[in-house]
Design goal:
Layout: H1 4-8, H2 16-35, H3 37-54, H4 58-71, H5 79-109
């Protein structure tokens, strides 16, 4: 089994300002989901498609990790609940990737 250092050692440090920016997006996205769930879903799906087209298998990995988890609960969730939860989970993974990307950009500038 790999150590945490092996798994995460090359990741950049995340500054407080980057973390706060992403956390603000979490709140904004929750509001977006409340007022326009279809628009929020389209936005997330668009981002995943971009990753698939531009970053190798990253988009597929994002979807697979979320869908595999949701499959464990497919019997207990309504279709609407499944779609909403999938959208929130995908957005969460996308925001983590975005946070790493922001830190890498900052690192390149410094």
């Amino acid at each position: 089994m790999s150590s945490p250092e092996d798994k995460y050692g090359l990741l950049p440090r995340i500054s407080e300002s980057i973390a706060e920016k992403i956390l603000a997006e979490v709140s904004d996205f929750a509001s977006f989901m409340k007022h326009d769930p279809d628009g929020a879903k389209r936005s997330v799906e668009s981002d995943v498609e971009w990753l698939k087209e531009n970053k190798g298998f990253l988009g597929n990995a994002v979807e697979a990790s979320v869908d595999a988890s949701l499959d464990l609960y497919s019997e207990t969730l309504t279709h609407k609940e499944w779609v909403e939860l999938r959208t929130f989970l995908l957005k969460g993974v996308l925001l983590m990737i975005q946070m790493i990307n922001e830190a890498l950009k900052k690192q390149a500038i410094d």
